[in-house]
Every structure is written in C-alpha cells, then in structure tokens.
C-alpha cells in the first residue's frame, strides 16, 4: 500500500484525485472491478473520471508516467513518437496541442487519419471486457467551456462505431455489447482529448485481434 508520506517523498507525475489516493491505499484483493453495468452507467454519463485501475496497476502507471515524462518531456510526445508514430507539424502550438498533416478534415473520413489501439493501461474491469482507444489526427467539435461533444461529433463517433465494430463484429460472431465515450477536456493535457474516443467491448470474438501496436480495422 502507498502511504501519504510515500507520495510526499516521491510526488507523482500528475495530480491524484481522492479516488486515486483511496485506491493506492488498497490491495488488489480489496478492489472491486468495474462491471459491465457500471461501465454502461459511466459511458452514458461520459464520466471517465470515475474509472479506476487495479491498485497494483495504478502504482505501475504512476511509475511509468514519471519515467516517461523524464525521458520524453511529455506523455503526448511519447504517444506521438512511439505509439502512433505521427510527426506533429512544426507549426503546432504548444498551448493547443499537436497538429498533423491530414488527408481529410472530417474525423474518421480517411483511415490514414486515425489509429485504433488497445489501451496500454486498461482500467480495472471484470473479465471479458476490452478497452480500445481510437486516436485521430483530426479533432471533434466540442463545447469550449466543458469539452462535451457537440451533436454532430457524437453522430460521427456513433457511425464509426457502428460501421467499424458492430457491423464487422456481427460477421465474426458478435460482441455481447459495446459502448463509446470520450474524455472531457483535461487542463494540462496537450494531446487534447477531443482527438480520441474510447470504445468499450464486452466479450468481442477472438478473431478481432490486434498486433503489438494497432487493431486492423481497415
């Protein structure tokens, strides 16, 4: 277990919420993973801040985040360089996050403008649930004040999920259920959260596989 004194002696690379601190004080055997019912409620309310990792995973994530920031400067730079292998334009504004050379300004319109990947640091969920992240070079239109998706952005995500996952998974045997959501804007996050969507799948068929870096949905 992680004590407050331990955190004070070795400050984490990002601010911890009260839920994080509570989680770090627990053991894995005391942690209750998110069920599908729980996840559906979180998705319906676009409340990813309520998602929690296993205590042992959270400790490893804190360590990884600190080491990665020391090596790359920012998590954004690491993700662009190592995971996505996208080169931001020299004209990118640090205050707005990276911008990229794109094929089509409409999100999901061109497969060269997005990548579908497993979450490197999945949340604590019951067995059979998979968390996928869709990274985009383009950005969703959002409400500036709170970061909520505008209706046209939500429709783009829903259409992409239907065509890319639901329709294809049905041909492969189907996933039991699925949901899609997106983080609210987070102050200090320079890979701005309107540039990715989160997809949650319940028991997807094994034929829908991923290589080391990305899921082939093209």
Structural summary, described in words:
With 218 residues, the chain is α+β, with helices and mostly antiparallel strands. Helices cover 33% and strands 11% of the residues. The protein has six helices and four strands. The chain has a four-stranded antiparallel β-sheet with strand order 1-2-4-3, sandwiched between helices. The radius of gyration is 18 Å and the shape is globular.
Summarize the structure in short:
By secondary structure, this protein is α+β, with helices and mostly antiparallel strands.
Terminal residue distance: 43 Å
- Sheet with most strands: 4 strands, antiparallel
Structural class designation:
alpha+beta
Strand order of the largest sheet: 1-2-4-3
- Report low-confidence residues grouped into runs of 5 or more: 2-9, 182-193, 207-218
Helix content: 25-40%
Q: State mean pLDDT (0 to 100 scale).
A: 78
Radius of gyration: 18 Å
How many strands appear in the DSSP assignment?
Answer: 4
User: Count of helical segments?
Assistant: 6
Describe the structure using short key phrases:
218 residues, 11% strand, 4 strands, four-stranded antiparallel beta sheet, globular, alpha+beta, 33% helix, single chain
């Amino acid at each position: 277990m992680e004590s407050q004194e331990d955190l004070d002696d070795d400050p984490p690379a990002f601010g911890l919420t009260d839920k994080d601190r509570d989680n770090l004080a627990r053991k894995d055997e005391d942690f209750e993973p998110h069920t599908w019912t729980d996840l559906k409620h979180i998705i319906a309310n676009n409340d990813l801040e309520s998602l929690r990792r296993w205590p042992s995973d959270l400790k490893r994530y804190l360590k990884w985040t600190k080491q990665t920031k020391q090596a790359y400067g920012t998590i954004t730079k690491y993700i662009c360089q190592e995971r996505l292998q996208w080169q931001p334009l020299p004209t990118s504004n640090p205050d707005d996050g990276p911008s990229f050379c794109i094929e089509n300004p409409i999100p999901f319109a061109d497969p060269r403008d997005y990548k579908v990947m497993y979450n490197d640091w999945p949340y604590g969920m019951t067995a059979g649930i998979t968390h996928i992240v869709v990274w985009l070079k383009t950005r969703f239109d959002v409400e500036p004040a709170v970061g909520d998706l505008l209706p046209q952005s939500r429709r783009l995500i829903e259409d992409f999920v239907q065509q890319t996952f639901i329709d294809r998974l049905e041909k492969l045997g189907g996933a039991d259920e699925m949901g899609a959501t997106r983080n609210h804007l987070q102050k200090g996050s320079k890979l701005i959260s309107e540039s990715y969507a989160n997809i949650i799948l319940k028991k997807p068929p094994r034929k829908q596989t991923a290589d080391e870096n990305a899921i082939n949905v093209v």
